[in-house]
Specification:
The complex is a heterodimer of chains A (620) and B (79).
Chain A lengths: L1 E11 L3 H13 L5 E4 L14 E4 L10 H11 L6 H9 L1 H12 L17 E2 L9 E6 L2 H11 L3 E3 L4 E7 L2 E8 L6 E11 L27 H8 L4 E2 L8 E3 L4 E2 L11 E4 L13 H12 L5 E4 L5 H13 L5 H8 L9 E5 L13 E2 L12 E3 L11 H21 L9 H11 L1 H4 L4 E2 H16 L5 H18 L3 E2 L3 H26 L24 E8 L2 E8 L39 H25 L1
Helix pairs in contact in A: 1-5, 1-10, 2-3, 6-15, 13-14, 13-15, 14-15
Chain B lengths: L15 E3 L9 H5 L5 E3 L5 E3 L10 H5 L5 E3 L8
Antiparallel strand pairs in B: 1-4, 2-3
Classes of the chains: A alpha+beta (620), B alpha+beta (79).
């Protein structure tokens, strides 16, 4: 059944950004009607569904100033940055911490640590000499945000992913959603849409082979990227891959921030240190790649040397926040943080795209506006604020809520009767459900994601990227028309396959388009292993064209500050001395031609002909 | 030899266990599971309807008011 509704603002995705967008939209203008669509359940969905233990990147004077943050971001993005967005977020730090204390009902010093002088106490994590990380006792974060979002009176549709954003003449008209439990559809005519649907976290498949063995929340299958692309929005930096160091098999954080900032160390098999900071910028990834390439893996996180009190603190955080299944994971393997080498880390087991842990996504300005009128983005789907983690998602979520409210108050609903369009979309979407037989969704997903992981994993090989494109096209053309969905829940899986393939194509084509290497490991092309000045301060911009994806070079807005744009690394020259191989004397070459096999082939053909003639005679 | 029919709401392999005696059928675990893994089965007791969508986040365990849900292990491919 298709329900038609009307709202001033639709928020797609109820994670950290989405809930903040709803809260701020209501605060900015309580008269507006806000509808929120969440694929999951508002209280537990998204990356912060089980809470979070820190805001990894935030600016709080006197520890650091907004300009310090812009300098840090200019450095880690190697100059491919809109500094105005970076500065806008940096200025919101003090407001954000106070707001979170208020939303969660926590006093100063309870939710976040303060120092002896009463200032919020920041830690060092980034590759700069300024602290920008704030610990947080945030196990209840998401439940509090959900409670506050529900209290605004927003109409919240749980289990209802968005399938399509309807646009006309470069502006949003509404959103089509689908309830995976009831199988009902809803079209919400809207003036503004806040897109906060998370990263593309279900791309490359980890070696365990378990489809939900993802670092990101597995509901984040890149739908946000696909929705924005289909709506005509511009995406950038899709070639700056997310490639993380993670707890092997668990696919959870490597504990670099939790344990590393509390004294834990890491080294490879032979005891060498891999990185000087744990930030997921291109330099640390490149160093990690080298350790494995040199056969010095695995990397171990060492906690056994820490005081018992510190180990207990690390356990308290790791087992009670964010990815709490870690307790059982260690317990069943007999691992203890008090033992040496108990934590094995792996690298780049799942290649993906994320604005929060890297810099890929929908391009936006400091107000979260995109090139599509009425469409705003924030959080991991947003590339406007790279490496923004939870803090960026929360703060920019609030920004787009306010901006969308301002825009909606000054505009009107547009478009005619959406029913015919919606029916057409629904008919196509439901095709896998109508089939009597076909390919199971999980098999097609397994095939797509194993191919993506194999061919896209850096160092980037142009031939491999072409082969990845061949695979995605083949799966799209041959397999998707054969997919069979069992029920509405499974139908969503079939739909997500399209997002995975769209994002994979963006990643591969952007990587081929950017004719240089940059961001260390994240865009290291083995055929062009150096930065090119022609690409300085330049995005690869992707938009939807009449005949597929359109790519172009696009300059970032002029810098306000001329901060350094280089990181401390250089690309290696791949050269392996294997000695002198066996030299064969030319007189020992095999002869050309193969009369022996030829004779057998002719004999087999003769026998086959004779047999056919015998059968004919018998029949007649 | 014929395989015995497996009842869909009693999967032969599951890493979640729901104590049928303790469960009061409140449905909190079904409602709160972020990946929509759980659904009510026979006797209105939840089971892992979409087992392989589980992110092993243990929300179901944490929200159960009767401590009827226990996660005994992680998925086989991960553990």
């Amino acid at each position: 059944m298709l329900h038609l509704k009307k709202a001033d603002i639709v928020v797609i995705g109820g994670g950290a950004s989405g809930t903040m967008a709803a809260i701020h939209a209501n605060r900015a203008n309580p008269a507006l009607k806000v509808v929120m669509l969440d694929k999951s359940r508002l209280e537990t969905s998204g990356a912060a569904g089980r809470g979070m233990d820190a805001i990894n990147t935030i600016v709080l004077p006197p520890y650091c100033q907004p300009e310090d943050f812009v300098a840090m971001q200019t450095k880690i993005t190697e100059g491919v940055l809109d500094q105005e967005v970076s500065y806008a977020y940096a200025e919101l730090g003090p407001q954000l911490v106070m707001e979170l204390e208020q939303i969660m009902g926590r006093a100063k010093g309870d939710l976040f640590p303060v120092d002896d002088t009463g200032n919020y106490h920041l830690r060092y994590v980034q590759p700069v000499n300024k602290p920008m990380m704030l610990y947080m006792d945030g196990a209840d974060l998401k439940r509090s945000l959900a409670k506050a979002a529900r209290a605004t009176g927003a109409e919240i549709h749980d289990r209802t992913p968005a399938l399509k954003i309807l646009t006309e003449g470069g502006r949003v008209l509404g959103v089509l959603g689908f309830n995976i439990r009831t199988g009902d559809y809803v079209f919400i005519r809207a003036k503004a849409v806040c897109l906060t649907a998370g990263p593309a976290g279900r791309m490359g498949l980890a070696s365990s082979g378990y489809l939900s063995n993802t670092y990101e929340f597995p509901g984040n299958s890149g739908d946000g990227y696909a929705l924005a692309y289909e709506a005509g929005a511009e995406l950038v930096n899709m070639e700056c891959y997310q490639a993380l160091t993670m707890l092997k098999d668990f696919q959870g954080p490597a504990c670099g921030f939790v344990a590393g900032t509390r004294g834990a160390t890491s080294s490879n098999r032979v005891g060498e240190t891999i990185w000087t900071h744990p930030y997921p910028s291109g330099d640390t990834r490149l160093g990690t790649w080298r350790t494995f390439a040199e056969g010095k893996g695995p990397i171990y996180l060492h906690t056994h040397h820490l005081q018992e009190e510190i180990i207990r603190i690390i356990e308290h955080i790791q087992f009670g926040t964010e990815r709490t299944g870690r307790f059982l994971f260690h317990k069943r393997r007999g691992q203890d943080y008090r033992q040496p080498r108990c934590l094995e880390l792996a690298f780049a087991e799942e290649i993906g795209a994320c604005g929060g842990h890297s810099s890929s996504g929908v391009n936006s300005n400091r107000r979260g506006e995109t090139n599509v009128r009425g469409l705003y983005v924030a959080g991991d789907v947003d590339a406007g604020l790279p490496y923004s983690f939870l803090g960026g998602a929360l703060a920019m979520g609030g920004v787009i809520g306010e901006e969308a409210a301002r825009y909606a108050a000054g505009s009107d609903w547009a478009g005619g009767n959406p029913r015919p369009w919606a029916r057409e979309e629904i008919h196509e979407f439901e095709a896998p459900l109508r089939r009597k037989r076909g390919l199971p969704t999980h098999l097609v997903e397994f095939k797509a994601r194993t191919r993506l992981q194999y061919y896209l994993k850096p160092p980037k090989n142009p031939d491999y990227h072409e082969i990845a494109l061949w695979w995605m096209e083949r799966i799209r053309k041959q397999d998707l028309p054969e997919v069979k969905a069992e029920d509405p829940h499974d139908l969503l899986k079939a739909h997500e396959l399209r997002s995975i393939l769209t994002v994979g194509e963006m990643m591969a084509r952007s990587s081929l388009f950017r004719s240089e290497s940059r961001w260390g490991y994240q865009h290291w092309r083995v055929d062009i292993p150096e930065k090119k000045t022609g690409w300085n301060g330049t995005w690869v911009s992707i938009r939807r064209g009449d005949r597929g994806m359109v790519f172009e070079k696009k300059k970032v807005p002029p810098y306000r500050w001329n901060f350094p744009t280089a990181m401390e690394y250089s690309y290696p020259r791949l050269s392996f001395d294997l000695g002198v191989p066996f030299q064969k004397d030319s007189s020992y070459n095999n002869p050309l031609g193969d009369p022996w096999t030829k004779g057998r082939m002719e004999r087999a053909r003769g026998e086959s002909k004779k047999s056919r003639q015998t059968r004919k005679r018998t029949k007649s | 030899m014929k395989a015995k029919n497996v009842k869909p709401d009693k999967p032969s392999y599951s890493w979640l266990e729901i104590d049928r005696k303790k469960c009061n059928h409140c449905g909190l675990c079904v409602e709160m599971c972020p990946m929509d893994v759980l659904r009510f089965g026979s006797g209105k007791v939840p089971y892992m309807r979409y087992r392989d969508d589980c992110w092993y986040c243990d929300v179901c365990v944490s929200v159960c008011p009767r401590k009827a849900v226990s996660m005994n292990d992680l998925p086989y491919l991960i553990r």
